[in-house]
Amino acid sequence: MRNYLRCVAAVIFLAVSAYLVSGFVQSEERPDTETARLMRITDSIDAEGQVLCDAEYVTAPFGTVYYTVSEGRWVSGGTVVAVEKSKADDYYARRSTSSCVKAPCAGYFSKRLGEGAPENAVGRVISGGWRFVTALGDTESLRVGQRLELTVFDKYPAVIEAIDGKKVTVRCKTGLCAVLGMNRLKARLCLADLEGLRVPEKAIHSDDSGDFVYVLQAGMSRRAPVEVIYKKSDLCLVKSSELCDGMEVIAK
Predict the structure, then answer these.
(1) How far apart are CA 70 and CA 200, in angstroms?
(2) Is 233 left (phi over 0), alpha (psi -120 to 50) or beta?
(3) How does DSSP assign the chain, residue by residue?
(4) Residue 94 belongs to domain with CATH number
(5) Full-prediction pTM beyond 0.90?
(6) Domain limits at 136?
(7) pLDDT tens column, 4-23
């Protein structure tokens, strides 16, 4: 009986020891993880810069003109925008076009010539899109072709056309009528307004199939494909059908 109890005690001791050792090994081998969290970010920059518009100059072969259209009016190509001042009465009486100046294309007419205008220019026809040129303190996170929203009085879709040192040129295809006659303006550049899962950048892996992370579930790791939708400094947002808020992501 005494030997039997000794054997039972020995078995229990070995079982407890094995359990403790196993737990210690598992705790030592368990990888570092971070919890994926749902997050919404808005990344914007307030800036002041120059307005550049696409335009064609209206030129006249005579010295002084009388304008037949007002500032900012939309005109079609071929519309009479000015006449020789001394013959203005004749134009209105007989609609004679012998001393008329016509718009070279469709667009908004402006008497403001800006820099680089030819000597015989009497106006411009502004059409197409426009550009916002500004100097930013940090351009490392920007790239040519990056899409954004530019807010002046309203929000306009835009794209970064060029980056030259700290100078950034943003092109807009809409909102031209809002900036007519402006040389400079203040605007807000919204670089991102996104919702995704925040994960550590070091958790992102890549291969020929794309980006992915390792998720730890029930002590086992599995691969989950992700799409990186935003990355700046130590902030990384992803989208994935296989990754949810609260899941543990292996951070390595």
Answers:
(1) 58
(2) left
(3) -HHHHHHHHHHHHHHHHHHHHHHHHHHHHPPPEEE-EEEEEEEEEEEEEEEEEEEEEEE-SSS-EEESS-TT-EE-TT-EEEEEGGGHHHHHHH---TTEEE-SSSEEEES---TT--TTEEEEEEEEEEEEEEE-S--TT--TT-EEEEESSSEEEEEEEEEETTEEEEEESS-HHHHTT-SEEEEEEEEEEEEEEE--GGG-EEETTEEEEEEEETTEEEEEE-EEEEEETTEEEEE-TT--TT-EEE--
(4) 2.40.50.100
(5) no
(6) 43-51+129-194
(7) 555 545 545 445 454 444 44
pLDDT in tens, 120-162: 999 999 988 899 999 998 888 788 999 999 999 899 999 999 9
Residue finishing a domain among 106, 127, 148: 127
